[in-house]
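queue> pop job 88
queue> type: inverse folding (structure -> sequence)
queue> payload:
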């Protein structure tokens, strides 16, 4: 979770005014409030304004946390992969719950066209993923 990424989701032009909706995903240690403060400092000299519509701080849970260890054990039991946990720059519902993480089934040998036309997954991969989810649910009960 190194660099800050920004997606310009929408740009609206009206007469002498330009507004933009940005999806900003900051690294660990850079809060939503700090991002807002830095944006405001950057646009203020130009007469710009910043309005934070919705914001969540980055989510990070250490790899040796009991929940991560248990989830990874479930993943490894069913996947035959020894890879380390992977953190992505996307946002997640887990940010709304302290101490939670998003847990998904990503397999190194199986590219899934996420958020793409014709998004799909082979039934065999789906079945393996469901086995991992069931194992993870059973294994993590009581951890949090």
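queue> result:
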């Amino acid at each position: 979770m190194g660099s800050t990424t920004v997606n310009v989701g929408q740009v609206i032009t009206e007469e002498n005014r330009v507004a933009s909706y940005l999806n900003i995903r900051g690294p660990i240690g850079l809060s939503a409030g700090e991002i807002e403060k830095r944006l405001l400092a950057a646009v203020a000299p130009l007469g710009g304004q910043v309005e934070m519509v919705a914001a969540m701080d980055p989510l990070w849970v250490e790899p040796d946390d009991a929940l991560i260890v248990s989830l990874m054990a479930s993943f490894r039991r069913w996947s035959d992969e020894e890879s380390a946990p992977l953190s992505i720059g996307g946002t997640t519902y887990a940010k709304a719950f302290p101490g939670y993480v998003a847990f998904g089934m990503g397999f190194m040998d199986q590219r899934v066209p996420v958020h793409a036309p014709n998004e799909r997954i082979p039934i065999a991969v789906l079945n393996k993923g469901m086995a991992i989810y069931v194992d993870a649910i059973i294994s993590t009960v009581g951890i949090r």
